[in-house]
Amino acid sequence: MEHQITFYLVRHGEAENNVGFIMNSSPEIKRYPLTERGREQALTTAKFLATVDADGLFSSPILRAKQTADSIAQATGLPIELDERLCETGMGMFNGKTQKAFLEKYADPKMRISPDPADGVEGYIDMRGRLKHFLDDMQTRYAGKKVIVVSHGDPLEQLHGILTNEAPGRSAIGWYPEKGSCTEVVWHSGH
Fold first, then answer.
1. Which of 6, 38, 80, 133 lies at a CB distance of 3.0 to 4.6 Å from 13, suitable for a disulfide?
2. 3-state SS, residue 69
3. What's the CA angle centered on 60, arms 53 and 160, to 5 degrees?
4. Before 27, cis peptide (omega within 30)?
């Protein structure tokens, strides 16, 4: 049986770590809040999402995503369900370091399909595993409904890839969400 779920994929607003080009994943070595611009982005997206009559609101528990979800919750009246499976990519030894250091080793996004195990960086295949478990839960709970998902660039990129049947490597060089953006994707999935 086929079910349809409408997802609103929301990338958190601009945060202090984005401005400083600092890699920040779970566990958060330092918590980086949204900037003023990021708060404005979150409010703009929240105003739009207040018009779509969504049924659920899920967020990464990392501060910048949670603050974005807080704005959406206030605008929509939906409670936030924090979900670890929506966390930022595990950055391993690069967590808390500069984006430049990370890109010196992983210049080509396709290298992240299967990263060097010594680095402790989460690969796209592992990331997709946790995102597929999230989608399995959504199929059970939200078939025929609308769900807002607040997360981070890379996980949203790969989630979008799953929803649109793109392979991990193809997803890594295709659609990528802007900070504070919202993208609607209608997912047709059979049980």
1. 38
2. helix
3. 70
4. yes
Determine the Cα–Cα distance for residues 56 and 134; give it in Å rounded to an integer. 13
How do residues 1-18 score in pLDDT, each as one tens digit? 568 999 999 999 999 999
Poorest-confidence range of 54-58, 144-148, 151-155, 164-168? 164-168
2-190 has which fold?
Rossmann fold (3.40.50)
- Tokens for 29, please give them: 């070595």
Of 122, 186, 182, the residue nearest 155 (C-alpha): 122
180 - beta bridge partners? none
> Tell me: the pLDDT tens digits for 174-191?
899 999 999 999 999 764
Reading the block at residue 11, the tokens are 């990338």
Contact 85, 134 (CB under 8 A): yes
The sign one gets for the Cα dihedral 106, 107, 112, 114 is negative
Single pTM value for the model: 0.96
CA 96 to CA 88: how far, in whole Å?
A: 13
